[in-house]
UniProtKB/TrEMBL annotation:
Substrate binds at residues 74-75, 96, 200. This is Acetylglutamate kinase. It comes from Streptomyces oryzae. HAMAP family: ArgB (MF_00082). Keywords: Amino-acid biosynthesis, Arginine biosynthesis, ATP-binding, Cytoplasm, Kinase, Nucleotide-binding, Transferase. Belongs to the acetylglutamate kinase family. ArgB subfamily. The gene is argB. Pathway: Amino-acid biosynthesis; L-arginine biosynthesis; N(2)-acetyl-L-ornithine from L-glutamate: step 2/4. It is found in: Cytoplasm. Its main location: cytoplasm. The record marks 39, 261 as: Transition state stabilizer. It is an enzyme of class 2 (transferase). The lineage of its organism: Bacteria, Bacillati, Actinomycetota, Actinomycetes, Kitasatosporales. GO terms for molecular function: acetylglutamate kinase activity. PANTHER family: N-ACETYLGLUTAMATE SYNTHASE, N-ACETYLGLUTAMATE SYNTHASE, MITOCHONDRIAL. Catalyzes the ATP-dependent phosphorylation of N-acetyl-L-glutamate.
Length: 319
């Protein structure tokens, strides 16, 4: 029996999926083998669906040939645990005041709860993620950070400013195909602390420092806003791209919660990171939308004198 072939071309309903994959090809080529540091925070940390989507994105990056490093804080979880214990949550200049008692809770929640949940989510897709804190292998060392409030230096307790970064352990994991997941706790570099002292470090700041020390291609900061607004609260227009110098001029006008994020982006691009991006973590798969599409989402910060290597305004993708 002969089978007559249909005339014309068969319509394949899955063809749009292939077109989407092809759109990502220039970006896959651009980022292949490059290190990407991702700061995980905001609602994405407490919404189960967003957490699952985040884990899928990070594993996708790894299988697509990138080298993702995840840095996380855990503000909502820390505040919740402090409330349970009857301890006060106080913030000054956008940073948590951290007493020795609070530091014990921070350490417990970050390394014992948030990190473990994230590692387990990533490892649902294979034995990829390894959890660490900045204390491990002396990855991060910090000294006391004094915040400025109304022109006065304010002691925030066990809040640290990163003084040095040692990337050897992270690079060894990356070379072995793993995904490092790092809690933003640093060992103390203050001589008066002796051995065993630790500091609570802002996760945005920690991610920026690690991105610079690793020579990362990009720093991605997930937060609860669409990006950097051009004229908030008068307008919700998001700045798509700006230079380090342009960002520096805007810093004094920013809300306190955005300052550490944007200061981190500024530090990163002025210390060798090609781009820094602030993304809306409330959008499922925001990482993939930002890094593998022509339009991108959020705000991208680029160095002053060097054009962005993957500017989203080029409809043809990177050269």
């Amino acid at each position: 029996m002969s089978i007559r072939q249909p005339s014309g071309t068969r319509k394949h309903t899955a063809l749009p999926k292939a077109q989407i994959l092809i759109e990502a090809l220039p970006w896959l080529t651009r980022h292949h083998g490059r290190t990407v540091v991702i700061k995980f925070g905001g609602n994405a940390m407490v919404d189960e669906e967003l957490k699952a989507a985040f884990a899928q994105d990070v594993v996708f990056l790894r299988h697509a040939g990138l080298r993702p490093v995840v840095v996380h804080g855990g503000g909502p979880q820390i505040s919740k645990q402090l409330d349970r214990l009857g301890l006060e949550s106080e913030f000054r200049a956008g940073l948590r005041v951290t007493t020795p008692e609070t530091m014990d809770v921070v350490r417990m929640v970050l390394a014992g709860q948030v990190q473990r949940e994230l590692v387990n989510l990533l490892n649902q897709h294979g034995p990829l993620a390894v959890g660490m804190t900045g204390e491990d292998a002396h990855i991060m060392a910090a000294t006391k950070h004094l915040a400025e409030v109304d022109g006065q230096a304010v002691d925030l307790g066990r809040v640290g400013r990163i003084s040095s970064v040692e990337t050897g352990a992270i690079e060894a994991l990356l070379d072995n195909g793993r995904i490092p997941v790092i809690s933003s706790i640093a060992r103390s570099a203050d001589a008066a602390d002796g051995e065993g002292g630790v500091y609570n470090v802002n996760a945005d700041t920690a991610a920026a420092a690690l991105a610079a020390s690793l020579g990362a291609e990009t720093l991605m900061v997930l937060t609860d806003v669409e990006g950097l607004y051009a004229d908030w609260p008068n307008s919700d227009d998001v700045i798509s791209e700006l230079t380090a110098a342009e960002l520096e001029k805007l810093l004094p006008e920013l809300a306190s919660g955005m300052v550490p994020k944007m200061e981190g982006c500024l530090y990163a691009v002025r210390n060798g990171v090609h781009t820094a991006r602030v993304l809306d973590g409330r959008v499922p798969h925001s990482i993939l939308l930002e890094i593998f599409t022509d339009e991108g989402i959020g705000t991208m910060v680029v160095p002053d004198a060097v054009p962005a290597p993957d500017t989203r305004h080029d409809a043809e993708g990177p050269a």
